[in-house]
Amino acid sequence: MLNNNPSAARDGPSSAYEILKSYDLPVGLLPKGSTGYDLDEKTGKFSAYFNESCSFSLEGGYKLKYNSKINGYISKGRLSKLSGVSVKVLFLWFNIAEVTRNGDDLEFSVGIASADFSIDNFYIIPQCGCGLNCDGETKKSIRSPFVSSI
């Protein structure tokens, strides 16, 4: 298992964001502030770490919440069996179970529903508290397909 320890010399990706890119996934799937990661290259088991939990709102009425540790399995264009990431749709919280890249779209599955978003929405790393609107100007707009899917 690889552990992202800044004092350890190693070859390969040096951050959780670089791991995402190496598996053809956009860096904006994780919020800013990852302190490290674990990756078992044989099984694809992947964990990303943060100093604390994080939440923020996105245009379109979504609120995202990340635990201080996110777990799942990573493969080319896919994060599966996710835990530690949830989305609020209307008044309910749903765990995001899987993210799959289909060309220029990302499909997010919450178990009972799924929604597609343009990958362009995820090239910018969101910040805890303010998401993509930290300087008063929203970087990308995300429409609300989950609402119509439930």
UniProtKB/TrEMBL annotation:
Lineage top rank: taxon: Eukaryota
SUPFAM superfamilies on file: At5g01610-like
Entries under PANTHER family matching the protein: F22D16.19 PROTEIN (PTHR31676:SF156), T31J12.3 PROTEIN-RELATED (PTHR31676)
Name of the protein described by the UniProt record: DUF538 family protein
